[in-house]
Model the fold of this input.
Amino acid sequence: MQAVNQPLASYVDQILITQGQIHERVAELGTEIESRHEGGDLTLLVILHGSILFAADLMRAMSVPVYLESFRVASYHGGTASSGTVSMEQAETLRHLKGQNVLLVDDILDSGRTLHAVKRLLEEEIEAATVRSCVLLDKKVTRSMDAAADFTGFEIEDAFVIGYGLDYQGKFRNLPFIGTLKPECIES
Ligand code: IMP
Ligand code: MG
Done:
């Protein structure tokens, strides 16, 4: 890893999705979600930390009142590939979503384990009325489980990406675009 005081952009290999493209697509997503919402209260459940920037922009692209909730889920644990285990330590904090319409907001759909696990929790344990999901990015990978999102921003190739909330070892979330990390910055 290069010294930490290098400008953020110097760690980026390729810009895949620009700030302008994100802005435009998030506005469209807000409209799509609203047009499919059948009325009643809607709670955006933001999967921390990766979805913070996306959710902040998405909720401002919607004109109906929404509630905001967040939930910490981790599946990468510092590497560039999913660890295979999804940890959810605060399931109890979501009990009040029983009978509510919930929109899960996640940054990226990779193996699908995160979305699958949170969706199952809300549907089967919390007993939310409806559970839909919105992801900014959908990686073209073969998934063993059914984890399709109801709303998707962009489909991307199977590469490790950073920026606009997405991190590598906790860093690079504040890049305003989505890009790939220079290979020499990835610890082997
Ligand atoms: P999944 O459970 O394998 O679908 O992984 C979803 C989570 O892994 C996302 O919410 C991200 O936090 C993280 N993740 C997956 N792919 C990437 C990536 O390319 N860059 C950064 N984080 C990623
Ligand atoms: Mg995440």
In short: The CA atoms of residues 50 and 166 lie 5 Å apart. The helical segments are 19-36, 52-60, 113-126.
